[in-house]
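Thread: "does anyone have the structure for this chain?"

Original post by V.I.:
We have the sequence but no experimental structure in hand. Need at least a predicted one for the grant figures.
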Amino acid sequence: MHVHYRSAFRSDLLCNQVVVVTGGGSGIGRCTAHELAALGARPVLVGRTLEKLKRVQGELAEAGCDAGVRVIDIRDGAAVREGVAGILSEHGRIDGLVNNAGGQFTSPLRDISDNGWNAVIRNNLNGGFSMMREVFLQWMEAHCGVIVNIVAPVDFGFPNMGHSGAARAGMINLTQTAALEWVHRGVRVNAVAPGTIATSGMATYPEEQQKRFLSRRDHLPFRRMGTEAEVSAAICFLLSPAASYITGECLQVDGGLRIAKHIWPVPDHQAMPPYDPFGRSVLPDFLTKS
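Reply from O.Q.:
Generated one for you, C-alpha cells below.
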C-alpha cells in the first residue's frame, strides 16, 4: 500500500488501472505518478532519460508501488509506436494517458530560428499527438480510456514563448477534436492548463525569466505560485469516474490568472494556502530563497 502521498481522493479510486505518464521523471509528471500510485493505479513513467525515470520508480518502490518505466522520445513517431506496443506487451492495457512531456525556451518571436521553432513544436504538439494516436489505435479504440493533455494558459497569447503558446493552443484544439472523434469509442479527452507552478523545471530558465516568475506572484489573485500537487489533483480528477460526463474541456489551474484585472487589484493576503499532500517537490534555489 502506498503510504507517502496523502491524496484527497479515496485510495482505490483508480485501482489496477495502468496510466502512462510522459515526462514522468520530474516535476508535475513525477508528482502525478506518486498520486496515481496512492490511488491504486500502476503508473508507467515515460521519458528520454532512463536515470530520471528509474529514480522515480525507486521512490515508488520504497512506498510499495510497482511502477513501469519506458524510454521513449515522443518527438519520434516510430519510437512512440514501438514504445506504446512495448507498454502493452509488458502491462497488458493502457487505461489512461497523461500527456505531460514538453519543453521550451524563452525568446521573442523575432529571434526564434526555424530549428528552435521546430524543436518546440515537435516536443509540445507533435509528440503529444503521436502519443494520443498510438494509445488510441493500439488500445483505447477497442477498450475505452481517458486522456489528459497538459497544456498552458494561452487565451491571451504567450509573449516570449510564442512557439510554446502556438503548440499548446494546438493541443487544446486537438483535445477538443479527439474528444468528438473518439467519444463513440468510450474515450474521454480533456486538458489541464497549469499556470505559474513551482517546479524543478524553473531552474532551466535564465535568471531574467526566474525574476519574472517571482514578480508574477504579485499579479495573481492567489498571491502565490501553485504546487505540483494542485495540478496532479486536477489530472487525477479528470482520469477518475467522477469526471465521467466531462470531455473536450480545458481545466485552468492558475490561481485566478485568467480573471486577474489591473482595474481590480487584489490586496496582499494569505487567504489561499497551498495544497501539498506530496511534500517531496524538488524546487530550484531561487524559489526556496525568495
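V.I.: this helps a lot. The radius of gyration is 18 Å.
O.Q.: and Helices lie at 27-38, 50-62, 77-91, 114-143, 162-182, 207-216, 228-239, 285-288.
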